[in-house]
Amino acid sequence: VEIRAAEVGNPATPQAVRRLFDEARAGGRRAGLLVELPEVKVPENAREAEAVTADSLVPGLGALLAASHDADLYVLSLPDLSGEIRSRRWLLMKAAAIARSVGPSARIAALFHQPAGGGLFPPGAKELLSEEAAAFVDLLGLDLDDAATTPEAVREAADGLSFARPLVVTAPRLHD
């Protein structure tokens, strides 16, 4: 289930997610939640930063995660790395920790989006996945715009960020 940043706070979103998860489980399928994370401001005070909850981080995120508590996969989408990397890293770590507390057995992925100017991963992705943040995610994700990109090229680029980490790749649908 893919939830864009604008939909996270919608009161109907958690109910729709719960319904889709229930239907997937009833059909014998696994289920995952992709959440697009908006840019947020890092609290200046360490105590305030530590006390952040899912809903104070992103309004509506708590209800959304509660509705998807039995997810097999949480994909934390970072569509824009143009802002300050420190705040994006903090957001990734905090959101991953909250998702882990809701679904302890779920895998967590950080999904980056292919930049328009070329390359597979955006500038700043390597810095964002520093040793500190890399420990919070199990998989590296790439939202690929060019479906003609070879798996070898994706693997090589991914290994440049985080060597041998499993990958989640989203791409345009192919007709064949």
What does this molecule look like?
There is one protein chain. With 176 residues, this protein is an alpha/beta fold. Helices cover 40% and strands 16% of the residues. The chain is built from nine helices and six strands. It has helices at residues 5-8, 13-26, 46-50, 54-57, 61-67, 85-102, 125-128, 131-134, 151-161, and strands spanning 2-3, 32-36, 73-78, 107-113, 139-143, 167-170. Strands 1-2-3-4-5-6 form a six-stranded parallel β-sheet. Helix 9 links the parallel strand 5 and strand 6. Helix 2 (13-26) runs parallel beside helix 5 (61-67). It starts with a strand and ends in a 6-residue tail after the last strand.
Structural class: alpha/beta
**SSE arrangement, N to C:** EHHEHHHEHEHHEHE
Low-pLDDT segments, ≥5 res = none
The number of distinct β-strands equals: 6
Percentage of residues in strands: 15-25%
* Helix fraction by DSSP (H/I, runs of at least 4): 40-55%
Main pleated sheet: 6 strands, parallel
The average pLDDT is 89
As laid out across the biggest beta sheet, the strand order is 1-2-3-4-5-6
